[in-house]
Amino acid sequence: MTKDVLVTISGLQVVAQESGIEPVEFMTAGDYFKKDDKHYVIYDEIMEGFEGSTKNIIKIKDDCVDITKKGVANIHMVFEKNKKNLTCYETPFGNLMVGINAKSIQLEEKEDDIFLDLEYSLEINYQHMADCTIKMEIQSKDSGGFHICS
Question: Residue 119: is its pLDDT beyond 90?
Fold first, then answer.
C-alpha cells in the first residue's frame, strides 16, 4: 500500500424514530501508513456551511477501529465488537454524549486495498438513535483500478 490513498466511505443510518434510511457517501484523498500492526488513514473533511476543515485520523486493527476528528467538530470514537463506548461530540451547535456499540467489524486486507465494514448502534444523549453501517475502502492511488464501496 502506498502513502497516497483514495478513501471511499459509504454508510447507512436506519433512524429508529423516523423509520427512515439516511445514506451517506463521499470520496477523498488521504495519507496511509502502517505501524505496530495498525493501519492509519489521515484525511481532511470540509463541513458544508463552516469555515475550516476537520482532520480525521483512523486507526484500524482486526478487532478495533479508532476514529478521531479534530477541527470544526471534535470527537474520539472507539468501535470494539460487543462493547459500548461513550464519548463527547463537540459540534458548532453544542456538545452531545455519543454511545457506540459495535456489532460487527470486518477487515479485509489486500496488497493495494483495505476494506472495512462496521455495523453499530448509535446513541445520542443515552437514547438509541440509529442502527448504522459504514463501508470504507482505502486504495493506493497508484493501483489504477478505483472501486466504489458497495
Answer: yes
